[in-house]
Amino acid sequence: MAAALHPGASVTAAAERGRSAPVGLAKSGRWSAPRRRDARLAYLLLSPTLLLLLAVLAYPVGWEVWTSLTDLSPLKGGPAEFVGLENYRRMLADRVFWRAAAVTVVFGAVTSLAKLALGVGFALLLARPFRGRVFVFLAVFLPWAYPASVSVIGWYWTLSPPITTSYSVFMGNLKHAADGAFGSGAWAFLSVTLFNIWRGSSFIGVFLLAGINAIPPELFECALLESKSAWRRFWLVTVPLLKPFLALAVFLSLTTAFADLANVWMLTAGRIIFPVVGTHAYWLAIQGGQFGPASALSLTLVPMLLAVLLLLFRMFDPPEREPV
Amino acid sequence: MNPKPWGKKAVHAGLLLLVSIYCVFPIYFMLVQSLKSAQEDVFGHPLIVLNPTLENFEELFERTGEPRGFVGRALRRSYPFFDWLENTIIVFAGSVAITLAASVLAAYALGRLQPPGFRWWRRVIFATYVIPHTILFVPLYQVVIRLHLDDNLLALLLVYPTLALPFCVWILSIYFQHLPREVEESALVEGASRLTAFVRIILPMSRPVIVAAGIFALGTIASDFTLASVFLLSEHNQTIPAGLGTMEVALDELLAVAGINLMAIPVVLICAVFARGYVRGLTAAMVEGA
User: Fold this and answer.
1) Which of B183, B225, B287 sits opposite A263 (nearest CB)?
2) Which domains does chain A possess?
3) Is the domain of B43 the same as that of B71?
4) What is the extent of the structural domain holding B49?
5) Closest alpha carbon to A14 in A26, A5, A28
6) Dist CA A142 CA A102 (whole Å)
7) Considering only CB atoms, which chain B residues are within 8 Å of A198?
8) Which pTM was predicted?
């Protein structure tokens, strides 16, 4: 390991042998030969990832952008015609759209906040050692580890039991109470919300636990001397320290909120329609065959999510740390 | 530290109990249902099972067709559960493997080789995570049909890796980027090739982070129901979630719950075995990055 102790020596040695030198070693300039070779190798190694993302995400998004500008429909004979922003104009004039958009934003915000609050609680509970911690940790890990593709089936049919079972009367009463208070479909929507919070809080709890472990404990110990009030310590020390992890956690769990809605929509073969942008778009596309408006509608999610992403990026990938 | 006061301890224990119940209860409930006989399902207590039976699980594997109560034999379908199980194992194992392979390569490129603008590459790749696949399935279906992969497990092997890929590339590349330069250099100086240095030094060092990425990928892939049921149509090609989704739950509620548990148990066990590694790996990546 002598080389490790003298990095300078190893640099020259590597350069003399003509090996591709590690990053940034070519002092002569940014575009030296080894560096260019490195860049070529880098693009080669990136290519599987980029190909997958191009085929599965970029092309479909491009298709949706194009389709949203046309009147493409499998029900209509002949080629699709370019209609410009007509689909968007009609969408913006539609009251249903605004209701769906509002519900989407509220749904995303409420689930994210609830997941964050619970997740922070779980993480703080588990951060300090106590007897039996491993069992509580596994319990907290369980909702996320239990595959949502099947637990959503169980969850949904439990909350709205299809046949007479020992719990269906109780659940039925709950359902009627919720639907009576907020309109039909409210209970189904609420049950998906609860499911998403249940599973997401588990993910965020474990994720933040990992984040707390990454923070040097001295920082928390200093805080203990600074202030006696646990509440003040939480807001003045814990939250700022955890901020990047909180932002990442919200980001990672946000898309699951929409995936869960889609799962239930699919599960019930579209019988349960949520007044949400995503599922409303499926309804247009599959039942109505209106691909153009459906694409326009589902694309409205993307700028919303990108805005959230940009906001969060500033927290977990701050630009000032970049030397370039 | 001096011993905590008694009251504080009790609050702490109470909170722990509450959290555990909150997390475990829905799973307990499903487990109890799957162990019930049809009779107990209707007349028994919702939360406990008095005469646990494995008949629902057995029935999944070999459907005897014994009519249950008022439901006639004619109405009941049999399900190729073995095929579903096999398909699920292939799809999950394959997708996680592809995710890890692609993300390790990409992360090495971004974290170690650092081509010009690598931070932006990483950001763009990570940003793709925000796009819900579920809003894309009409064009995705076209991609799948053009590649002649409809009703084929390969369709899922193409789509699933992209679910977790952005995050896996992100944490792995941040971890690789902050590994000290010397770890590779000493091997390179001694005449090892870049590949050898990677396989012998970098990979073993980053095992916890790779485990974390793998568990994240497994959890993410296992949460998809929509894509599986859109792309896999014929009965024998389905995975467990897609297959269970086609069950007539009004008739086969207990069977469906048994299927849910059969799918969940292996996934949960894998996650539980690696649970500590998952946290350790995330921590390792976070110490460096974020």
Assistant:
1) B225
2) 96-321 (1.10.3720.10)
3) yes
4) 6-75
5) A26
6) 32
7) 22-23, 26
8) 0.86
